[in-house]
Amino acid sequence: MYWAAVIYGDDDPHGVAADALVAQCCARLQRQGWRVAGLLQERAPRPGGGKPAMLLHDLGSGTRICISQDLGPHSHACSLNPAALAQASAVLRQALHEGADVVLTNRFGEQEACGAGFVAELVALAQAGVAVLTVAAQRHAPAWQRFTGGVGLELAPTPAALDGWCAQLLPRERA
């Protein structure tokens, strides 16, 4: 199984630096001819303050899906929009249908750790033998291991770790 999660700690609030590394890795794989699809997480400030908007960048179409709700500048509640998350899941199903070599899922987060979010899509990708790259907070690493049956790699958020994972992909035959 070619599954890996870039694990970020408290020194990388919201995994912003990890997202940047993953974006670079995906771009490099695309330049090498790999069919890379999926969702990259981005954060954007909201006019008037408050929690930044969480956007998912569809690597295939370039569109961005806002998966957070604006709950106001003083809210500390979870702002995840389940309907938008469901909309974004279609990108992962399309990647599987179109035969992507590598699929990026923006996060293995709270939703996935609880058996929701993109779990169904992740299972379908696993069953099809597709390489998956994701990002997870350190607190979700045990859930990642349970979900992958202990075979999902945990990568340090460094270029060297991602390069090593990419090197493991190179010998694989592409369809």
What does this structure look like?
This protein has helices at 16-31, 82-97, 110-113, 119-127, 141-147, 159-169, and strands spanning 3-8, 36-44, 53-58, 64-66, 102-105, 131-137, 153-155. By secondary structure, the protein is α/β, with parallel strands linked by helices. The protein has one domain: 3-Layer(aba) Sandwich (Rossmann fold), CATH 3.40.50. Strands 4-3-2-5-6-1-7 form a seven-stranded mixed beta sheet, with helices on both faces. It starts with a strand and ends in a 6-residue tail after the last helix.
Give a summary of the structure in a few sentences:
The protein has helices spanning 16-31, 82-97, 110-113, 119-127, 141-147, 159-169; strands at 3-8, 36-44, 53-58, 64-66, 102-105, 131-137, 153-155.
- Sheet-strand content, in percent, reads 15-25%
Tally of DSSP helical segments: 6
Supply the CATH class. Answer: Alpha Beta
Major pleated sheet: 7 strands, mixed
Radius of gyration: 15 Å
What is the residue-averaged pLDDT? 88
Predict the CATH topology: Rossmann fold
Count the strands? 7
The tally of domains stands at 1
Major beta sheet, strand line-up: 4-3-2-5-6-1-7
Structural class: alpha/beta
| CATH architecture group name | 3-Layer(aba) Sandwich
Shape: globular
The named CATH superfamily: P-loop containing nucleotide triphosphate hydrolases
Helix content: 25-40%
User: Which parts are unreliable, with pLDDT below 50 for 5 consecutive residues or more?
Assistant: none
Euclidean distance between termini CA atoms: 17 Å
**How do the helices and strands follow one another from N- to C-terminus?**
EHEEEHEHHEHEH
